[in-house]
From TrEMBL:
Family, similarity comment: Belongs to the krueppel C2H2-type zinc-finger protein family.
Native organism: Danio rerio
Gene: LOC137491035
Protein name (record): C2H2-type domain-containing protein
Keywords recorded for this protein, A-Z: DNA-binding, Metal-binding, Nucleus, Repeat, Transcription, Transcription regulation, Zinc, Zinc-finger
Any single GO CC term annotated in Swiss-Prot or TrEMBL for this entry: nucleus
Length: 380
């Protein structure tokens, strides 16, 4: 790629370099203007009014700027333009000796090397957190300052990073540019697609150090860890019952509100959770799509299959914090806990007697009704 050579008293540019792509050859767009003689200045002013036609793209010659003929981006220094041209040429002369990754600038390689060395020279003065790049520190500082300079023109929501705003805008536009090649499902974020792909690959990179169970999402592992720690940070304001996940508390709250927004179209029965409705629907269809690979037994709900699988694996992830006894179902642990607490939440409406389990209450009710369902037919 040849550059226009312009001479003045102090400045002389006599530098050419060749760009790999053939379509970049014979393009001239480097202009350096020195405000020297009036004659030279007059010639430049005239030249600034003209346009240079290159590969069907109009290029304007900006005073004291070096312009890329491929994308019209301008630079204040010719060295910056030279580095930029490597993007179009695909040239990456700077290679990492550790992993072989290549870069078009030595500064980019230097930043990359910090991944291998672990160097983080930029430290936050507020909290002491360190970063490998100054730009990362600048973004981090907005956490402390509360600065959110990027605002959505649709809803007014503000963000600390332009990338966060770009992702947010897809809510309004409905854009989902990341598509799964396996099933065609689309996503607004590449990270969401990466998580989805694990459904097809079966990849579960997050493993519990306590029991060895693996998960496809780190958030799922975090929720699982609360089983071992017994942590239940989400508490019901009505009855004081605590939960390990906020979603479980939200479902529980419907017991107090009586809300059952999910209705069966077949029989009209309503449920507080969509998963309960899905399980119920299999009563009408007779469908049991979840089959145990060990014994072939089928179930209407995936949760029932998961509980059943613990019979084969021997897994008992639910541990009593009082005595250390383990159970394969959380419901069994809840029943067991009542031994220690003495809680008897199931009360007979006939005589007021209370029980720790609903099954015990059901058996007791039969003493009032006189029902004897377990009597043999030949004794009737």
């Amino acid at each position: 790629m040849a550059f226009i050579k312009e001479e003045s008293e102090d400045v002389k540019i006599e530098e050419t370099f060749t760009v790999k792509q053939e379509d970049l050859q014979e393009q001239t767009d480097l202009i350096e203007v020195n405000e020297g003689s009036k004659e030279e200045e007059h010639r430049v002013k005239i030249e600034e009014k003209n346009y240079l036609q290159t590969d069907g793209i109009l290029k304007r010659r900006d005073k004291n700027h070096f312009i890329c003929t491929q994308c019209v981006k301008s630079f204040g220094r010719k060295d910056d333009l030279k580095f930029h041209m490597m993007i179009h040429a695909g040239e990456k002369p700077f290679t990492c000796t550790q992993c072989g990754k290549s870069f078009n600038q030595s500064s980019s390689l230097k930043i990359h090397m910090r991944i291998h060395t672990g160097e983080k020279p930029f430290t936050c003065t507020q909290c002491g957190k360190s970063f490998s790049q100054s730009s990362s520190l600048n973004l981090h500082m907005r956490i402390h300052t509360g600065e959110k300079p990027f605002t959505c023109t649709q809803c007014g929501k503000s963000f600390s990073q332009s990338s966060s705003l770009n992702l947010h805008m897809r809510i309004h536009t409905g854009e989902k540019p990341f598509t799964c090649t396996q099933c065609g499902k689309s996503f607004s974020q590449s990270s969401s697609l990466n998580l989805h792909v694990r459904i097809h690959t079966g990849e579960k990179p997050f493993t519990c150090p306590q029991c060895g169970k693996s998960f496809s999402h780190s958030s799922h592992l975090n929720c699982h860890m609360k089983i071992h720690t017994g942590e239940k940070p989400f508490t019901c304001p009505h009855c004081g019952k605590s939960f390990s996940q906020s979603s479980h508390l939200n479902c529980h709250m419907k017991i107090h509100t009586g809300e059952k927004p999910f209705t069966c179209p077949q029989c009209g029965k309503s449920f507080s959770q969509s998963s309960n409705l899905n399980c119920h629907m299999t009563i009408h269809t007779g469908e049991k799509p979840f089959t145990c690979t060990q014994c072939g037994k089928s179930f209407t709900c995936s949760s029932h299959l998961h509980q059943h699988m613990r019979i084969h694996t021997g897994e008992k992830p639910f541990t009593c914090t009082q005595c250390g006894k383990c159970f394969n179902c959380s419901s069994h642990l809840n029943q067991h806990i009542r031994i220690h607490s003495g809680e008897k939440p199931f009360t007979c409406t006939q005589c007021g007697k209370s029980f720790s389990q609903s099954s015990h209450l059901n058996q007791h009710i039969m003493s009032h009704t006189g029902e004897k369902p377990f009597m043999s037919n030949h004794l009737v």
